[in-house]
Specification:
The chain is α+β, with helices and mostly antiparallel strands. The protein contains four helices and eight strands, in the order E-H-E-E-E-E-H-E-E-H-H-E. Strands 1, 2, 3, 4, 5, 6, 7 and 8 form an eight-stranded antiparallel β-sheet that branches. A hairpin with a 2-residue loop joins strand 4 and strand 5.
Length: about 150
């Protein structure tokens, strides 16, 4: 990272960023073409390994790409207040962000899939719910497992 003064390394601070943001932009490669989609997410930790959970329909372009190349990258960010200075070149936004990449894993086990859906729902709404077997079967759930992520804040 070029701006070491903005790097976020503490696990608790990265968790805070994950807790305050709502959307992850997930990027993948469709052959030579880049493809990116904004998705709501849930997350979990296995040691220092970040697991981001996503759900979607059981078919579509995103799934076709992810099944052919199991690598993806992501960015999660929140915009704060604008920063205006006398010199417009020094203006900008206060922000916090996480970027990273990792391996895509499709979750097939109904129990694990249900837990991932619970994490996503709680992350987005603050509510804990149980999903029915029919609801669990009706969607595709995948995760990006990342050991390579970086936090940044201004």
């Amino acid at each position: 990272m070029r701006r070491k003064d903005r790097e976020v390394t503490k696990h608790s601070e990265i968790t805070h960023i994950l807790d305050t943001c709502k959307t992850a932009c997930v990027a993948m490669a469709d052959g030579e073409e880049p493809y990116v989609v904004p998705l709501s997410y849930g997350y979990g930790w296995k040691g220092d390994c970040l697991e981001l959970y996503f759900h979607c329909a059981k078919e579509g372009k995103k799934l076709e790409i992810l099944k052919s190349s199991r690598q993806a990258c992501f960015t999660i960010f929140s915009e704060g207040e604008p920063l205006y200075t006398e010199n417009p070149c020094n203006s900008g936004y206060y922000y916090s962000s996480i970027i990273g990449n990792g391996a895509v894993e499709f979750i097939e086990d109904a129990g694990e899939k249900g837990l991932a859906l619970q994490k996503m729902f709680e992350r987005q709404t603050g509510r804990t719910v149980e999903f029915t077997e029919a609801q669990i079967r009706s969607v595709c759930v995948f995760k990006i497992v990342s050991k390579d992520y970086t936090g940044k804040r201004k």
